[in-house]
User: What shape does this take?
Amino acid sequence: MDAFFIAADSALRTVFAQHHASRPTPKGDGNASEQVLSDAEKRESAALMRVNHVGEVCAQALYTGQALACQNPALRAQLAEASREETDHLAWTQQRLKELNDRPSLLNPVWYAGAFAIGFAAGKLGGDKVSLGFVVETERQVEAHLQSHMDRLPAADSASRAIVAQMKADEMAHAQMALKSGAVELPGPVKSMMQLAAKVMTTVAHRV
Assistant: This one.
């Protein structure tokens, strides 16, 4: 029951709370307020950062679900550490959305519930190695997705670009952590389903 209440508290905090990073926000070539972006560039940056914020909500849910199902204390501690880094990402993207006068996705509770279910099911049905395999594949897909955002963000938006670059580096580290901990490669059809689900999420979150 304690684990359940901790998971519920994490869900509420992730979706509804104001987040505070343990690390300073990555900086670009200048302060965000000093950058000159057109209205169209602001809208594009905000849409991309909203998608990135959703991705971090899902990462929190995935790690929380996996930790709840995990029976290995050492692995649970690794998942908790990765989750703390994802909290930094949540705070950074949330802050950047405010600076761009925009908002997070209205469907964050839905995104969280789906990712939590996937994480918990992976931990319960497949065990630690399969659960870690989900971490590796998720982080690989997120890394590719963040790289695509680097290509799409306005060149003048150095603040958003700096945040995305640091997030990308952190996701690569999480994938390496999972590989070193014994992750197994997921079957091709599972990877394809994950890619399809991510495509739906990013397309919808870009607007809603």
User: Anything to note?
Assistant: The two ends are 34 Å apart (CA to CA). The mean pLDDT is 88. DSSP finds six helices and no strands in the chain. Residues 108-152 form the longest helix (45 residues).
